[in-house]
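Q: Could you write out the predicted structure for this multi-component system? I'm mainly interested in how the pieces pack against one another.
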Amino acid sequence: MTLEELRKQIDEIDDGILELFLKRMACAKQVAEVKRQKGLPIFNETRELKILDDVCRKAGEYGGQARILYANLMAMSREAQHSALGSGTELRQAVLKASRFPNKPRSVACLGEKGSYSHEALSRLYPEAEPVFFPDFPSIFAAVENGRADLGVLPVENSSAGSVNEVYDLILKYRFSIVSAISLSVRHCLASRETELHEIQTVYSHPQALRQCAGYLKKRGVSSAECSSTAGAAKLAAGKRKTAALCSEHAAAQYGLNILDRNVQDSDGNRTRFIAIGQNLLIPPQANKISLCFAVPHRTGTLYTVLARFAASGLNLTKIESRPIPGRNFEYDFYLDFSGSVADPKTLDLLCALSEELTRFSFLGNYSELE
Amino acid sequence: MTLEELRKQIDEIDDGILELFLKRMACAKQVAEVKRQKGLPIFNETRELKILDDVCRKAGEYGGQARILYANLMAMSREAQHSALGSGTELRQAVLKASRFPNKPRSVACLGEKGSYSHEALSRLYPEAEPVFFPDFPSIFAAVENGRADLGVLPVENSSAGSVNEVYDLILKYRFSIVSAISLSVRHCLASRETELHEIQTVYSHPQALRQCAGYLKKRGVSSAECSSTAGAAKLAAGKRKTAALCSEHAAAQYGLNILDRNVQDSDGNRTRFIAIGQNLLIPPQANKISLCFAVPHRTGTLYTVLARFAASGLNLTKIESRPIPGRNFEYDFYLDFSGSVADPKTLDLLCALSEELTRFSFLGNYSELE
């Protein structure tokens, strides 16, 4: 057969599959109605596993592929049933009750010190709020819980101050929500109380920043000294002649330093992401990003059928991360960010369906992210 | 209709879909043969996108679902074609030429200092090798490249010494491979030159370890002081009376300290994963873990169709992480670990197919991981 003939044959097969697929979805809706009347659960694991085993056997050399295809078909069918039944009451209620108005926090808890990159993120997100500084993540959550601060700002990527896992653990522990986010370019400047570059003999900074600017420092032939933070380096340089700090322009301004050189990092493109967390769910009208956490059992293809459902709803992942669940072999928590809004009924339906089907499911927030 | 009648109807539909699916796969094989004869590429993006758009339109309210279903069918069809054609020659050759024998490295580069958790990982992986210590990731790669060390050991999770991204960037930059891995529980002990707990007044450690043991220290009523590492704390405590360090037992042994208390961290379950990297691809016979890196274009469902293919081959993901590609909006690199071995022809076929289809595809290694 020629390629054209083969393609024509494939097109006919595809038409047949589509027809059967749509019939199957129509049946799923009827199944939903029967299940509603009889109060039966949507997910029938025994039946699904039996169908998968049967199909895998019947498909011979394509058993693995057929299994995935049917896992997918059944997930879509469940989806249609959940949608027909309005599943996920708890999440639906929480989203309905969430505040729609961006709050104007009076005070915001922040990691590190005056002039830190976290402080810069806070100033961009909440320019009118008073920053309150804390040395670690748990103190920030405690401050928001006991009302010392209205919100907290924390780095969640490229951070040397703690791990992202710790942030997620704390969000789940405190049952807080993500209310906004910002992504900042990490750009170091050389800042000093001196006004001329050639006067600088020693450059202070955090070891990571020193590494990021190693090429620049070598070329300049200056010696370097480590500090515990870039903001700390700025503070130190403000008090000592013939020294400079590698820090953000924000930090230089905080300590009244002159900026002798800009963008001195060896390579561009490093960004750090910060989130703001609060006690209450807040979903501003322009919210365009959703964060979730859930576990999937260690069965081949389980993650994939969940992702298929995001894809089927036209939702794009912007982040995915897996993490082994401590104490349970081969079970994983997944952290996902995707673009979308719960104001879209289809998106809300999907999340509500998943909230019923997945263990350890948490809706972490629907917010907007500044660049 | 009753549930039983509906299910019978669904079963019949499923039989029909399976029949058509198997016909489609048979056509795909014939397409592969025609393409081989004519030297045509397997992936025909224009045709695939047109089919997806058509099917999406025809499926009405289930357009999104139908699109995913067909993206999946076409990916499986490509898979069958790649397999029939033996695609991915470059990767196939590299795997064939890889050494099968675990090497006995004489010296291994290691992050940090004597007694660090990295040092412990190295000692467990290569008990007979001489450790050589370096302060950062780039120095370790340089040492392996210039032959000062045969291999390098680096932490790739929960690490405060640098980011996982940095490790992956360096592996790709140097074109190194992952040759082994180990996962260590992070367990701190209280170690001192003193022999009695009540003599301790000050406890040294890295800020992260101090936080991890904050509850314990509070209960004991001792003051704490920060050091740059847990091993550094052990060294310090060895030289000063009435002090102790929070460090690993390995570090305590390195500095001849008495272990006054064990497992003093507030919660268990923290593990750090370490990998060993080398210049050459080494695939030991018992290798059971594969690491990959690749980019997918920002089109809905692209990641998902790749994961579907892993699932169809029965391969279980053990780790997935996304990372925005610097300078390119909405394009992502993915880092994946999954259980498997390239000695399995089906697994190798899948990787070879992906190596042809995905941009920025890198096979990082096939190794075994100690617990």
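A: Regarding packing and overall arrangement: The radius of gyration of chain A is 26 Å.
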